[in-house]
Amino acid sequence: MIYKLRNLQKKKIIIGYNLILNLEVLGFNLFRVGILLSDLSKKSLVINFLSENKNVVKINELIGERDLEFDCVFRTVGELDGFLGKLRALGQYIRDFDVTNVVEA
User: Fold this and answer.
1) Beta 56-61 vs 68-74: how paired, if at all?
2) Euclidean distance between CA atoms 84 and 7, whole angstroms
3) pTM of the prediction?
């Protein structure tokens, strides 16, 4: 088996590996938050704010119903609520949030 894996690596068929943590075992919840902006010119400001937070693990720019989407990890919904309060305080250009608790099977 190891020979086959090394051979696939040499042929550049396998170019890397990903670590997938079981966040639930560590006491964390994964949340996905969609943001609808009222002022698209402020998108980079929101992205910078999200990028600076250690709880945000992924940011996506979207086309469609939401302008941005980000994944974040928090122990409790209360911690997430506090973070979203800080995000809302950035300005009046965030029209709406939609939050999903992501359950990985």
Assistant:
1) antiparallel
2) 47
3) 0.78
